Amino acid sequence: MHTFRILFSAEWHHFRAAKGLVLLCGLLLATGLYGIYYGTTEIERQRQHLATLPELTRRNIAELKEKFPGPADAGDIGYYHSTFAVHHPDSWAALSLGLRDVNPTYVKLRLLGLQNQLYAADNTNPMKTLSGNFDLAFVLVYLFPLLIIALSFNLLSGEREEGVLPLLLAQPVRPAVVVGAKLAFRLVLVLTLALLLSVVGMLWAGVPPDGRVASWLVLTTLYCLFWLGVVLVVAGLQRPSAVNAVSLLGVWLLLVVLVPSLLNLGVAAARPVPQGIALTIQQREEIHAGWDRPKAQTMSRFFALYPQWRDTTTIRERFAWRWYYAFQHLGDLAVARQAAAYAQGLQQRYDLVEKLNLLSPAISAQSSLNALAGTDLPTHLQFQRSAERHHDALRAFYYPFLFRRVAFTHADYAQEPTHTFISAPELTTVQHGLLKLLLSVALVHLLGLGLLCVRPVTPR
């Protein structure tokens, strides 16, 4: 143990003397702080945007009260009045933005057909979407492996090339102790930076001190251990430093860039999913066809679904709001199977990636951090389902006014259903991610130790 402490201390002095490595750690620390700043700023921007939506609804109601000063037809109100299904972020989302930069955080709803509204989204800069957002999870998953490579590519080869390793092994010290001290120092250094950034990010984002704190820290630790295991494997091959650097960068490129890209392409080919715009086009065609169908045919189909309104007055006029909203809803039902298949296809893609992401610990770590923050695909699909339920509640609220021909008064606005949805963590995904990372760590470390046993450390 005394020898181990001496070697560990020597590594510390060697690191302090390497100004380039100190500068690199400082730059990564600054980059991580910027990632925290960007994530918290982006979530705060989203919160401020979402906070304006109730005011927009209040203004809309005020305009309608002015437009319809007395009792009004509920059909007019349902057509002109808009409400919002809102997806509020969890505080953890500031650390791992996930899909919140590509999926809408709210849906503007009226009493019209749902699908056309559900997949309508604000225009975004495609270059920004392509490059993605910069957050703490990005720094941990994509940049920290590069730091580990920079610190460790010459773990043993550097000592050998400088002529230090023969002198070191001439002393009464085992090679395993030398390797262990070097890896332990790098582990302490990297984990100190990673955990420091994590704690700063948690305090900055104001996350609650619950079990997710431990999960985030364990995920971060296992991911760093995996890359140190990769370093151990490459060091066990005992090649020159230049070869080690190229090999480690190749592994980073393979696991962080190529495998995720190929996996996404393979999953997209294996689980083809139609675009959401196809649903809206088909729904619009069905709704437009409703204008040409006999009213009796439309209402007969509608009453088969809602027999409680069958006893309402027969429609004799040229236009009636209850007929209009009836074929709007029938347009939704016409694409209900395709909409369910679309959501199911997205979920199947996600599930398939979760099964295959053992091939890339980077994907496993990123998806686990997103799941921990409630910014993954399943959470977005849950939000969409909650928006559908809110639309159903709106229809249930307006139908008595429409079919019983009850006037809509100003007091009735306060009775309208409201919606809210707050991201929740997908803890099952996090648990699976922890197990996969643990397995990956065990595999690379066993392989590295096996190489060192088969090919013992030699001075040359």
TrEMBL record:
Domain of life: Bacteria
Keyword Transmembrane: yes
Keywords: Membrane, Transmembrane, Transmembrane helix
Residue ranges of the TM segments: 21-40, 136-156, 183-207, 213-235, 242-263, 433-454
Database matches in InterPro entries: DUF3526
PANTHER family: ABC TRANSPORTER PERMEASE, ABC-2 TYPE TRANSPORT SYSTEM PERMEASE PROTEIN
The protein's name: DUF3526 domain-containing protein
UniProt lineage: Bacteria, Pseudomonadati, Bacteroidota, Cytophagia, Cytophagales
